[in-house]
Amino acid sequence: MLFGLWMARNDNQVRGVMATGATVLLAAAIWLTIYFVQQRNAGNNDAMLLANSVTWFAPLHIDFAVGVDGISTVMILLSAIIVFTGTFASWQLEPMKKEYFLWFVLLSSGVFGFFISTDMFTMFMFYEVALIPMYLLIGVWGTGPKEYSAMKLTLMLMGGSSLLILGILGIYYFTGATTMDVSKLASLHMDVTAQKVFFPFVFIGFGVLGALFPFHTWSPDGHASAPTAVSMLHAGVLMKLGGYGCLRIAMFIMPDGLAMWAPFFLVLTCISVVYGALSACVQTDLKYINAYSSVSHCGMVLFALLMMTQTAITGAILQMLSHGLMTALFFAVIGMIYHRCGTRDVRQLGGLMKIIPFLAVAYVVAGLANLGLPGFSGFVAEMTIFVGSFENGGMFHRVATIIACTSIVITAVYILRVVGKILYQAVPNKKFFELHDATWDERVAVGGLIFCVAGLGLCPLFFQDIIVNAVKPIFNTIIANAPAVSALANM
C-alpha cells in the first residue's frame, strides 16, 4: 500500500489505492479470523498459529517472530475495520492527501506489527513505529492548538517508552539474556526481586498509552486536535496497545511483580474510570467529551486486567474490542458534524436531528453503546468486566468494583445531556438549515461501524469464545508461576 501511494500521481489515484488496500486488508483480517476459528475447531491447540521466526540480531537474541492467538486475532480484525472506515472518513480530506495517507498507513503498519509480534523487542519496535507518525498527523493536519497537542502527546508517550525500554532490558538480563521470545521468557521464572522492581516500569510504560491516571492528560488534547481518521485509529486501536502490552508482557512475564503492585495500580485505574467519566460531564467540546470518555473506558480495561479473574480479563479484551468500535464511530460522526457546522461546542449546536438525521441517529447509536445499553457492544463488555471483577472475593476488590460501577450512571448523564442539547434543542443558527446530510463515503464509514457495534452486542459469543480460549492459558500460566496472584482474591 505504501508503494502504491508513493506512485500515485493525483487525488483520485490516492483514493483508489487506499480504498483498494483497506478493502484487501479487511478481507485478509476476516479470512484470518475464520481460519483461526477453523483451526481451533479442528483441534489445533498451538499457543500461536501461523508462527514464524527469523533471526534479526543474534548477539541480543532478537528475532523477527510473529504469530497470532485469539487476542491478537480480534485486535487485528478491529484494526482492519478502523483502517477501512477511517479511509472513507478521510475521503474529502485536504490538503496533501497523499502525504496524509502515507503517514496514516505507516501508523497502521506499526499497530498491525505490534499485535502479531511474539518477540519482546520487536513488539517495542512496532510500538515506536506506531507512535512516531502521530506527531506529524496531528501537527500538520490537526485543528486548534495542534502543535501544542502534538508535542505534548509525543513527549508523554516517549517518556512512557523510556520506562518501557528499561523494563524490557531488565526482563532480558534478569532472565539470563538468552531470548526475547515472550512465551519463553514467561517460562524462565524471572527473579522475584527483579520482577518487583521492573514490573512498574513496564506497566506504567504501556499504561501511559492506555490513559493510566495520572499520565492520561496527553489523550484529551491529542484527540481534540487530531484529524477525524487519526482520532478513530488513535482511540480505537492505538490506545489498546497499552492494555495488550500490560497483559502480554508485564503480567505474563512478571506475575510476582503483579501480585505486589496490583493493589496500587488498581487504585489508579479505579480513579481513571470514575475521573474520566466525571471530567466528560463538564466538557463543552464534543471531542473532549469523547476523549475523557475514552480515558474512563480504557481505564476500565486496565482495571479488569488487574482484577485477575479469567472472566474479568476476558471482559477487558471485549472492552478493547467494543471501545475501539464505538469510539471510532463517535469520532467519525463528531468530525463530520464539525466539518459541516464549523464548531464542536455543544452550546452552539442544536436541532441536528431535523437537519442531518443520518449523522444524528449515528451519534445516538454511538452514545447508547457508550453508556452500555443492552443490544450494543458496550453492554456485553462492561457486564463481563463487572461480573468478573466481583468474582474476586477480596473486600478491597469488591469495593473497587462498586466504585467503578458508578461510572455507568455518570456516563449516562453526559451522553444523554449532549444528545438532548445538540440534537433536539432549537436550531441556534439559521445557516445550519443549509447543511447537507452524510455523503456516500461517510455513510460507508458510519454504517460499517454501526453494523459492527450492533453485531458484537447481539452476537457476542463468537468473539467471546475466541478470546476465552486465548485468555485461559495466559491466566493459568500466571497462576502457576506465581501462586501469590491467587491470594489477591482474599485481600
UniProtKB/TrEMBL annotation:
GO terms for molecular function: NADH dehydrogenase (ubiquinone) activity; NADH dehydrogenase activity; ubiquinone binding. The keyword NADP does not apply. Coiled coil: none annotated. Keywords: Membrane, Transmembrane, Transmembrane helix. One of its GO terms (biological process) is electron transport coupled proton transport. One of its GO terms (cellular component) is endomembrane system. Residues 117-402 form the NADH:quinone oxidoreductase/Mrp antiporter transmembrane domain. It is a multi-pass membrane protein. The chain crosses the membrane at residues 16-37, 49-68, 74-93, 100-118, 124-143, 155-175, 197-218, 230-254, 260-282, 289-308, 320-338, 358-379, 399-424, 444-463. It is found in: Endomembrane system; Membrane. Belongs to the complex I subunit 4 family. This is NADH dehydrogenase subunit M. The lineage of its organism: Bacteria, Pseudomonadati, Bacteroidota, Bacteroidia, Bacteroidales.
